[in-house]
Amino acid sequence: MDVDPGQDEADDLILAVLRDRQLEGYAVMQAISTLVGRRFTPPLGKLLGSLRRLERLGLLTASWRFSAGRLRRAYRITRAGRRVLAGRRKRRKAQATAVSRRARRAGCFLARAA
């Protein structure tokens, strides 16, 4: 199975913006752009594919609703999605702490060697 190395990060952004609210696909795209400071706006087609994949995995639910006179899919995070997001955040925090610790050790070692 081919895995996109950035897919976990993209999934985390989706789950994070849906953590406290239900949004339609286009609104998810706008929320991600705002969350990352407008440095990145996911292509809508790729985002919709990710939303459907996360729904199939049970991390999101989707429902149809009328908005602005049109029928649209709105997405909401599930309990399983919240658990996955929390676990990934915890893992990333542990990784960042380990890298920081190694950098400090390397800095101390280099300082003594000079």
Q: If you average the pLDDT, what whole number results? A: 86
**Bulk shape:** elongated
Order of strands across the widest beta sheet?
Answer: 1-3-2
**What are the secondary-structure elements, in order, as H or E?**
HEHHEEH
Q: Uncertain runs with pLDDT below 50, 5 residues or more?
A: none
- Compute the number of strand runs: 3
Q: Architecture in CATH?
A: Orthogonal Bundle
Note the quaternary state here. Answer: single chain
For the biggest sheet, the summary is: 3 strands, antiparallel
Per CATH, the superfamily is Winged helix-like DNA-binding domain superfamily/Winged helix DNA-binding domain
Count of domains: 1
The radius of gyration over CA amounts to 18 Å
| Helix share, percent | 55-70%
Number of helices: 4
Question: Remind me, CATH topology?
Answer: Arc Repressor Mutant, subunit A
**CATH hierarchy class name:** Mainly Alpha
Supply the helix-strand structural class.
Answer: alpha+beta
Strand content: 15-25%
Summarize the structure in words.
This protein is α+β, with helices and mostly antiparallel strands. It has a single domain (7-113), classed as Arc Repressor Mutant, subunit A (Orthogonal Bundle), CATH 1.10.10.10. It has four helices and three strands. The chain has helices at 7-17, 25-35, 44-56, 79-113; strands at residues 23-24, 60-67, 70-77. Helix 2 packs across helix 3 (44-56).
What layout of secondary structure does this protein have?
Layout lengths: L6 H11 L5 E2 H11 L8 H13 L3 E8 L2 E8 L1 H35 L1
Antiparallel strand pairs: 1-3, 2-3
Helix pairs in contact: 2-3
